[in-house]
Design goal:
Helices cover about 50% and strands about 15% of the residues. The protein is an alpha+beta fold and about 300 residues long.
């Protein structure tokens, strides 16, 4: 894993890759950044002679970061049990559509230093994919993400997990079964059209139109983290979701809905008085919304604080 060389530039250059791996493993920008910082702290805590013995600092940093993530995933179950309501991954904005709070422009460093800005937005960070990853065991998730997403060989993954390559291959295969048979991908244009129609129906409080856009078996999950009001359990059924969405609009006059990329796919951002209140991601199949993930926990919306209007 990583590239050979022990220069400071080589070490610093690994950060982007490490952030990308850690976010996919943890589903949290904050935790990913903490894991990577911890790995770097351990590297700089080594003696100079020990550093020089390591042929590939990038490989060393990746292994250490993944082991830190593995420990965090192992303790996540207990932490999630104490979490108020449903837990969802942190949503990511598209850097082309937003500005970081405190960004200093094209010559500054604030935006480029933000960990969220370094995450590559692709199919492996969609909310649907990250939610499936949450159903895996920690070892399955590490094996699957490293092999299927980042194409690391099982011989190297074995070093992270402390298992044989054959055992790691079995873990990845088990994780792959959890992902299931992939549906035909919805085109970006098709998904954007559906999301736009949802926005329009939501703004006009048109329950009938919303019901027509939602799959009858659709499920909406909201994450408030106990910090803001929201449903604690998933809302099931297109009709119930439509009624809930309209009820929200009735209780929040002045709510502004914006079409924005969420984790690389079309989504909606709800703002009130310029403050981002909710970031919603959608899964679409056969022209209808099948899943809605609405993140309302303010701690998970920090990367959106500077979204462009």
């Amino acid at each position: 894993m990583g590239t050979a060389g022990s220069g400071a530039d080589d070490i610093a250059g690994e950060r982007r890759q490490l952030i990308n791996v850690a976010y996919r493993l943890l589903g949290s920008v904050t935790e990913a950044e903490d894991a990577v910082q911890d790995a770097y702290a351990r590297w700089y805590g080594l003696s100079r002679s020990r550093q020089e013995e390591i042929l590939s600092p990038g490989a060393w940093l990746t292994t250490v970061t993944c082991r830190i993530c593995l420990d965090l995933l192992g303790s996540a179950r207990a932490r999630r049990e104490r979490y108020v309501g449903a837990w969802l991954p942190e949503p990511l904005p598209d850097r082309s559509e937003w500005d970081h709070a405190g960004a200093t422009g094209s010559t500054g460093t604030a935006a480029s230093a933000d960990p969220a800005d370094q995450i590559v937005l692709d199919e492996s960070v969609t909310m649907a994919f990250l939610v499936v990853l949450e159903s895996m065991t920690p070892a399955e998730r590490v094996a699957f993400v490293l092999h299927d997403v980042f194409r690391y060989p099982f011989a190297e993954i074995a070093d992270v997990l402390g298992r044989t390559p054959a055992a790691c291959k079995q873990l990845a295969a088990s994780a792959r079964r959890r992902v299931g048979v992939a549906r035909a991908p919805v085109t970006a244009t098709g998904r954007a059209d559906v999301v736009r129609h949802v926005k329009e129906a939501w703004e006009t409080k048109d329950i009938a139109a919303l019901v027509g856009l939602l799959d009858p078996a659709a499920v909406m999950t909201a994450d408030g983290g106990g910090m803001v009001g929201t449903v604690l359990r998933p809302v099931e059924g297109g009709a119930r979701i439509a009624q809930y969405m309209v009820a929200i609009a009735d209780k929040a006059p002045g709510l502004e809905l914006l079409e924005r990329s969420v984790n690389g796919v079309p989504g909606l951002v709800a703002r009130r008085a310029g403050v981002v209140m909710t970031v919603a991601s959608f899964d679409v199949s056969d022209g209808r919304v099948t899943r809605i993930w609405a993140v309302r926990n303010p701690e998970k919306l920090r990367p959106w604080s500077g979204t462009a209007g």
